Amino acid sequence: MTGSVSKLTLGMALLPLAVAGPAVSAQERPRGTTDWPSANYASSANRYSPLTQITAENVGTLERAWSFHLKPDDYTGLPREQEAIPLVIANTMYLGSPYGAIIALDATTGAEKWQFQLPENDLPSKRGIAYWPGDADHPASIIFGVLSGGMYSIRASDGALNTSFGENGIVNLRTAEVMQTGMNDGYSLLTAPSIYRNLIITGAGTGEGMRGPDGGTGPAGDTRAWDARTGELVWTFHTVPRPGEFGYDTWGTGSALNRSGVNVWGYMSVDEERGILYMPLGAPNDDRVGLNRSGDNLFGTSVVAVGASNGRYIWHFQVVHHDVWDYDTQSAPLLVDLQRDGQTVPAVLIVNKTGLLFTLNRVTGEPIFDIEERAVPQSDLPGEETSRTQPFPVKPEPLTQNTVSRDNLYKGEPEHQAYCERMVDENDMKLGGPYMPIAVNRYSISPPGPAGGINYWGPAYDPDLHLFVSNTTNMFQPMRLIQQQDGSWSNSGPLAGLRRFGDRDRKLLCGPTPWGELVAVNMDTGDIAYRRTLGVSDQLPPGMQDTGRPSTGGVTLTASGLTFVGGTDDFRFRAFRTATGEKLWEIRMLSSIEATPITYMGADGRQYVTVVSTGGGLTGSEVTNDEIIAFALPIN
Questions:
Q1: Non-local CB neighbours of 485 within 8 Å, separated by 6+ positions
Q2: What value does the mean pLDDT take over residues 271-276?
């Protein structure tokens, strides 16, 4: 094992003992399980199913087996987008609906079993729910957060509240320990919590950008663990260190006080055998301006390993120092075993919006493929002390585009090509490469940008082929720092904010194609195994449509060598041969798929592949449909 990195700080602690109790985590099931027990299938987040009934030879015959509409009959508005990944346990499918309900369906027929409706128009976490298998005295339960800041526990059998959990089945997450600047600030749980034995481990939804008169203050992004039986708080990890804690000295004087952000708003992963939790943390607030938070700002935009049973720090790796790009490390770190010199090495694969893939020993945090600190451009905002270096893996090469210039804008349809050139020229855009800070009083683009790379959906891993596989997005974003009347600086202007680098009306991007890819990395060598353009732009003329499209949902792999992916905003669902990236099957839906597909074995002995089709896509298409659709092979 080789490699070192100057800003990789390691701290070792004794590995924790497990929480007392006989329950076994839903993710601790044997490799042969045919359910889909957690959002990313297993606590390792590998999204690799052992099912083999659907193969490269028969995937082309998949047909719709059943569907279920999420929208209630009495709802009159536009359909709502759904990013949550369903769960399947023993032929029951569970999911949180964007219309305020938890729904249980027969996973083989799609028939509804029960619904739990949230009160007062509240909504469940937009990115999923969790399953706790219970113990001798407590029933198997569905655990989920809500927009108002609570966390519910309901019985998996019938959706009834578990009255012994919290107060009549509900824990208030908005406690004084995290609501550090006032109880009226926004705070919620955005994603499915992680389950480790009898613990529910939660991230935090703190909001982003400028918060409060001091800029960046607000609710703490702390990670917390709760007893799954009672809802009592078990441990808290301060994601922004307090005085006397490791990492506090990476913040300028007083700048850590009441700092918000630095939160897990995506998915976590757990090494069940070793009892280690891996937390992917986002950027500090304000996530575009760091004038009042000099230093590297731990644990912002980092992966932190802690004891799953006690929250004690073990090691960390900071993906971006002093993040002023909103690059958030938010997808679940992939836990895989790699072969090195005849030995099995426990590894963790880390990706984020930068489009870089870091490979570390998941026990020690040491690099497996070398990591270098490389010089990067510096900010021209007076007083902004951006880091002079950032970490880059020697292998693999960047998974996404990380440079743009006037010469490599979109080339193709003359009308759109001219539009992109005018957009750059008329706005005097500053175009650059990795880690170019946001320009002052001028639009700038530094790829991949806060909407590019690999976002919260994360990658997957095939342990037989030794392939890391992910869909990626090359979708840049113009940004500009403007001084406000109160003297503060913010990313503002008609092209800034959430505007994508492209033609909003035609929903076409201006960066070089492909705008989306399916990428595989050989983890034995660190080399790119293949890149395949993923997605089409139907609005372009024939012969020019193979552009790739941006993604929001991830890939799912099977032991029969298949990769399933929706994700792209072109309304397609596709299957590929994992080994080569060859497209084997494609179907056009009524809406795009913004959640990762799942696969499981039904009670009838058929393998199902299920997607939630509700989205219009990142580039602004109108939502037209809202279905859960299950595909299976024809009945002979």
A1: none
A2: 98
3-state secondary structure of 407: helix
204: pLDDT strictly greater than 70: yes
Residue 618 binned pLDDT confidence (cut-offs 50, 70, 90): very low
Say what percent of the chain tops pLDDT 90.
Answer: 85
Per residue, what are the HEC states of 432-467?
CCCCCCCCECCCEECCCCCCCECCCCCCEEECCCCE
Tokens representing residue 310 in the block:
């006690």
Contacts of 172 (CB under 8 A, 6+ apart): 149, 150, 166
Contacts of 242 (CB under 8 A, 6+ apart): 248, 256
Bridge partners for 508 per DSSP: 503
- Give the span between the Cα atoms of 552 and 471, in whole angstroms: 9
- How much is the pTM? 0.94
pLDDT at residue 355 tops 50: yes
What CA dihedral angle connects 96, 97, 102 and 105, to 10 degrees? Answer: -90
Task: Single out the residue of 417, 530, 529, 554 nearest to residue 473, CA to CA.
Answer: 554
Task: Please enumerate, as own/partner, the contacts of 464-468 that have beta carbons within 8 Å and a separation of 24 or more.
Answer: 464/559, 465/561, 465/578, 465/579, 466/338, 466/339, 466/522, 466/523, 466/524, 467/520, 467/521, 467/522, 467/523, 467/529, 467/578, 467/579, 468/334, 468/349, 468/357, 468/520, 468/521, 468/523
Q: How far is CA 237 from CA 172, 270, 313, in A?
A: 18, 15, 8
- In tens, the pLDDT along 520-544 reads 999 999 999 999 999 999 999 999 9
**Cα 191–Cα 192–Cα 197 angle in degrees, nearest 5:** 145
Q: What would the pLDDT profile of 426-477 be if each residue is shown by its tens digit?
A: 999 999 999 999 999 999 999 998 988 999 999 999 999 999 999 999 999 9
Ordered domains of the chain (ranges, CATH)? 198-395 (2.40.128.630)
Q: Give the pair of three-digit tokens for residue 178.
A: 């995290």
Do residues 473 and 462 make contact, with C-beta atoms less than 8 angstroms apart? no
CB atoms within 10 A of CB 468: 26
Name the token pair of 354: 């930068």
The C-alpha atoms of residue 628 and residue 86 are separated, in whole angstroms, by 9
pLDDT of residue 215: 76
Q: For residue 572, what are its two tokens?
A: 């397609």
Q: Say if residues 247 and 298 touch (Cβ distance below 8 Å).
A: yes
Cβ-Cβ contacts under 8 Å for 212 (sequence gap 6 or more)? 181, 218, 258, 260
Residue 514 preceded by cis peptide, ω within 30:
yes
What would the two tokens of residue 362 be?
A: 């998941």
Mean per-residue pLDDT for 4-18? Answer: 37
Copy the structure tokens of residue 147.
């927009």
Using only the alpha carbons of the chain, give its radius of gyration: 23
Residue 593 to residue 381: CA distance in whole angstroms:
40
